[in-house]
Amino acid sequence: MSMNNQGRPSSVDQISVDKGDAGEAFPASIATISGDRGLDHEEALIFELGHGAVGVDLADVNVGEARLGGMRRKAAIGLPGLSEPEVIRHYVRLSRKNYAIDSGLYPLGSCTMKHNPRLNEKVARLPGFGDLHPLAPQSTTQGALELISQLMNWLTTLTGMPAVAMSPKAGAHGELCGLLAIRAAIAARGETRPRILVPQSAHGTNPATAAFAGFTVDEVPAKPNGHVDAAALKAKLGPDVAAIMLTNPNTCGLFEGEIIDIAKAVHEAGAYFYCDGANFNAIAGKVRPGDLGIDAMHINLHKTFSTPHGGGGPGAGPVVLSERLAAFAPVPLLVADDKGLRLIEDMEAVPQGAKPFGRMCAFHGQMGMFTRALTYMLSHGRDGVRQASEDAVLSANYILASLKDVMSAPYGDGPCMHEALFDDSFLEGTGVTTLDFAKAMIDEGYHPMTMYFPLVVHGAMLIEPTESESKASLDRFIHVLRTLALEARAGKTQRFAGAPHLAPRRRLDETAAARKPVLRWKPDPVPVAAE
Amino acid sequence: MSEVRYTDQHEWIRLDGDEATVGITKFAAESLGDVVFVELPASGKAVTAGGEAAVVESVKAASDIYAPAGGTVTAANAALEKEPSKVNEDPEGEGWFFKLKLSDKGEFAKLMDSAAYAKFVESL
Amino acid sequence: MRYLPLTTDDRRAMLGRIGAPDVDTLFRDVPKSALIPLSAIDLPDTQGELEVERAMSKLAAKNVAAGAAPFFCGAGAYKHHVPSAVDHLIQRSEFLTSYTPYQPEIAQGTLQYLFEFQTQVALLTGMEVANASLYDGSTATAEAVLMAQRITKRGKAILSGGLHPHYAETVETVASLAGAVSRSPVTPGSAEDIISLIDEETACVVVQSPDVFGLIRNLRPIADAAHAKGALLVAVVTEVVSLGLLEPPGAQGADIVAAEGQSIGNGLNFGGPYVGLFATREKFLRQMPGRLCGETVDVEGRRGYVLTLSTREQHIRREKATSNICTNSGLCCLAFTIHLSLLGEEGLTRLARINHAKASALADKLVSVPGVEVLTSAFFNEFTVKLPKPAAPVVEALAAKGVIAGVPASRLLPRDKGCDNLLILAVTETNTDDDFDALVGALKEIL
To answer: Which of A177, A417, B94, C411 has the lowest tally of Cβ within 10 angstroms?
Structure first.
């Protein structure tokens, strides 16, 4: 079998996990009558709480069968009924079990957990934006089109690229858009190029997207210094290579210094350069990816441009395109004429020279994220965007400099960009793993950093503080990590055993969840009455 | 008299007369972690040496199982459907994946014996 | 700058510890030629909250909000009343500013609402299992086709002519990589014969109900015909409130349901963000794309929730993943779940009935307008009328009169001449009798 080492260990993988006899580290808990503990409330499912109340007031009208085509619903749906106070209490209680940026430093590498400005939320909810239908007559949506146009200008100006496709709904969706544009450009040349080169250190969406778009993936190794092996990459170029996919700065937090050279070689080989823009926060306002020779780059508006992560979505992934790819951008296209701004949605009514490869999704893109991102950009201005990038890089280097003597940083000799990478060498012989270390951070009030990614180092810990942290916040974080590292190395492993102890839940059994998946609530079967 | 051989992809294959049984080694099972699901080939499926034959899923990874030698699948271990944990509990016995009728016994003979495999694992 | 906490003193102290004279030293790996001066960026400088709000409000004022006029647009996005509690709750910090629940111990809030969401979607669609959402209905439909191609190991997908054209284009853009995608005829107001197109090479048939013209379809015969040939039925729903009144796809034999959840909890937002619902049969579980939340216990035996079956996903399976999806629709799912919790069985049923009753009332009124013919005989809250002249200019003229009179079919099917005079009208609980009078009056003037 192929040894697939991609996943991080499951919670129950580690022999050190026990039920929590951590001795003096965490004293035994007091039993309460309710099962709740102070402000920590246990909360059942809405299906278990529902009891036939209603949380909305709607008239009860009769409808005839005449226009239902015989398709009226026969059975009940099974939805629970609760009043408004019950619904609000339920979701408020759930919310309090979540860690969030607003609660504390969120050090996830390559996720850019920066502050989500509240002005963004206010603007997105202006009725002129929030209550606007995508297919309303275009004469009634000119303000929205102007906003999109302004955002497009910010994105193309900051990246130094001539064009941008706005419709992708997330970063991975943007990657797909970029690769489909590349595919169309190659087909337009009458060529067949089935191979895509992807570094070993790439985020999983890169090879997944390449495969999804119909290419075969060829992995490029990393050098011991964390950079992509440019020589190996160039050696793999050939007439059957469609593109390379690189992240810059890369997933080890390092700027790929040879990138201009690589781009030249890629173009000479007739291939295209796709850049994963997940780490744009390190260089926005200081470096233009267009100057480096890229052909396409998705920009995660929910990373670099502060649109909220919302517990996992929604995101937005517009893709900037070079001159060679601009013609293949998908519909809709935004054009300006004497009547104003207009979206062209019909693939056959596009301007002369445009050859859209298709459509990524219904309607026009994540407008709600566009309003938030533009609000952020206008608030920061070009000077603020640049300062944010510099502060992000400064903060990551501050963390690296403050921890590399007690933790192990494989590339710690030089500066990093906006994220600092550590591995688990410093834990060798302690019996504490990266996973245990991360779970102990939870007890200290911190969300763990990104673990076991990138795959090119062992037991990776990738820390991205972002520019939103005060120095005091960084100092507190550094102090906790230093202490944890020193304790682990000194053999004081009690607080790691079975961590976390203080979170709303202890470690959860992921094996059972996967072996016998329970993916929905079901009512208990009605017991058969005894005779 | 049955003989067991090993591949560098951590599959074992035991030959009893004409019938071969295939599974993954203890080393592979330990690296995978708790197995949660196994996708087995159907009876009658033809496989080639080194070709994909099955998929094993653990909580943290999903890996392809390759046929150590070419032939036709004669049976799959249905017990793994209900109890994928058997792969962790007894990977080289009750956790077998499928049985094969070999098309070329010569392919079997070329594989590593247990001493060679043990040495191989040490070198990793 | 108000969002940047570091002061000049802080920066100096931090550089001191790092041992770098200035911040540009940290950018030493960047080729000198690639570092640009600020002056090279032709964009405005920082602005205060007041100025930014003013600028954005000016842009917003150039749009006509749906609530500001008699409004009848549908065709895949619907204006419904979202209770104030929903928007208030989704703005709680712990929901708004949290991340994907990869550390379940401190994400039980997110995980539990995803579990509730999955259950609600399964119940609504009448299917066995649902995922934790995809981006929207159109990409969910594309994923459904790809999934059907994987399961049946066949490439051919047949898209009904009643499928929203944007959805069809999205499917064609991605699914044609894995097989041939074709469309059955567009027959506004009637059900086309899609059954005769199914053969032994068909992976799936994709049918939307109610369709883009508003027609309610009977999926059962199509499901049976597909199954007889070893193919799957993908049922698409763009107006999920319809499931409060109509038979769900699961009860009609659908194998996969791809739906747009925007109608519940989420505003129009000029097309996004929306929320893709995806549900299927238990036996296809491992072929399902997207995130899944599952129930389990922690080491103390307490019930909890985790993301599960993630080995199918991109970050582990990489090039063999079921899809390349990373994000789900997070906050939009939460809005959906909260709104549906407030509605409950009784509320959703009443809401659906009100929608149909109002749409029916408008259809009755339109009969009185000379030249207007209602084409759709069976509908939920949306139907198509045929005008005596092209609909697009009529809609523009009505907009100038302050009435947003629906979506001309030609906007979605510009090259289908038979659609030029067709107007798609949606009616929801937000429409009033005054709206109807305004529409009828304006139509009488224009036509």
So the answer is: B94
